[in-house]
Amino acid sequence: MAFISSGVEYALHSLLYLAQPINADGASVRDLAELQNVPHDYLAKIFTKLHKAKIVIATEGIKGGFSLAKSAHDITVHDVIVAIDSYKPLFECKEIRTRCTLFEGEPPKWSTSGMCAIHQIMQNAEQQMRQNLAQQTLGNIVEQFINKAPNSYPLQVIQWLDHRKSNR
């Protein structure tokens, strides 16, 4: 089981399209789903969570859709993870250290004092991971994308989205 769901990946890819500097009008969930070949119903649920977390704003109407609620540099990867997957711990300690047969049901104080060493390691790792993800913004991803994709690609996407919008 993955710690971070595929919904986070879908969200980040969709937000990447919304964050393109050339895309001022946003896009509908249906168009984003078709553009990326992902399930519309699933993406709609993701956008409900993104909207609730104030990461995107909705525009109603036949030509409505979603756009970013704030600058791409103000949306962190961690924000998106929490919006989609909620805040869930990386590790859940089961306190196995208290179950040793030799303790005959009554673990000695030395075995249970302080935090479990394994739990502490996992908690530290999670904290470092969350700090790193909180430093990475959607804006950082956009910059990497722009440096990687051909110059014509963002314009092709906008033209595709505009064509879809004008045919509604």
List the helices and strands and how they pair.
Layout: H1 6-18, H2 29-36, H3 40-52, E1 56-59, E2 65-68, H4 77-85, H5 109-112, H6 117-135, H7 138-148, H8 152-166
Antiparallel strand pairs: 1-2
What does this structure look like?
There is one protein chain. Helix 1 packs across helix 4. The protein has a domain of 112 residues: Orthogonal Bundle (Arc Repressor Mutant, subunit A). The relative contact order is 0.18. The chain contains eight helices and two strands; from the N terminus they run H-H-H-E-E-H-H-H-H-H. It has a two-stranded antiparallel ribbon. 55% of the residues lie in helices and 5% in strands. The chain is mainly alpha-helical. It is elongated and about 75 Å long.
Keyword list:
168 residues; two-stranded antiparallel sheet; 8 helices; Arc Repressor Mutant, subunit A; mainly alpha
Q: At CATH's second level, what is the architecture of the domain at 6-88 and 138-166?
A: Orthogonal Bundle
Q: What class would the helix/strand composition place it in?
A: mainly alpha
Largest sheet: 2 strands, antiparallel
Mean pLDDT: 92
The helix fraction, in percent, is: 40-55%
Q: At the first level of CATH, what is the class of the domain at 6-88 and 138-166?
A: Mainly Alpha
Widest sheet: strand ordering: 1-2
Question: What does the overall shape look like?
Answer: elongated
**How far apart lie the N and C ends?**
40 Å
Report the CATH superfamily of the domain at 6-88 and 138-166: Winged helix-like DNA-binding domain superfamily/Winged helix DNA-binding domain
SSE succession: HHHEEHHHHH
